Hints:
This protein is α/β, with parallel strands linked by helices. Helices cover 35% and strands 22% of the residues. It has 9 helices and 9 strands. Strands 1, 2, 3, 4, 5, 6, 7, 8 and 9 form a 9-stranded mixed beta sheet that branches. The chain is globular.
Amino acid sequence: MKDLVSIITPCYNSAEFIEETIQSVLNQTYENWEWLITDDLSKDNTVEIIRKYSDPRIKLQVLEKNGGAGNARNNSLKRAQGRYIAFLDSDDYWYPEYLETMTDYMRENNAELVYCNYSRCNEHLQPILKDFLADKVVTFSNLLKTCRLAPVSTMYDTKRVGKFLFPVKSKREDHVMWLNLLKEIPEGVPVKQTLAKYRMRENSVSRKKKNIIKDQYLVYKDFMGFSTVKSLYYTANWALNGFMKYSKIFN
């Protein structure tokens, strides 16, 4: 029997998109999965939509207090029973072969962490930039300068590396978690296929630029324990790489 995959999803006020996300999971060709959804006390009808689906593999928990995406992900991670950990935010989308392709690649290549190409889309899942390409081996060193790992396109093997929780006091919690993980393993390897769609929503937290530079600086200063000069150096690199990653000038 194929190994169990635990899908980790935080959601908050996701009613507009959650059904497309649910269908993308139900359509997976790899069927041995559990989906641990943690609702962060949504104020819309997200929970009612999820509860319409009777598949026992979908395991919803509603928090009593809003604690942010990192806290919601941690709640799901603590409940996860699978060998493989996959992440899917409540507005993103997987192609049907995502889980099958990623787990096959990990098994066949003895990989501890893999990531794939993904489409960068608007709210209607229409591409607005070139696909992000998984074209490089990821290490702790190069992940400091730019975060090539996105939750929608990354999977790791808990049998090999254990579980890694998200820092709840960082607004860049996914980058901190990936860095902590890459401290413990030599590399993450690319799967050079487009297997997911990432919604670039105008009102999402990741798209609000006002405080993002400060938040990224704190990744290095507070969470990596770097000096001020070293933290500024990596923040500058991250900002430049981010501009090239998302600017239509380069896409």
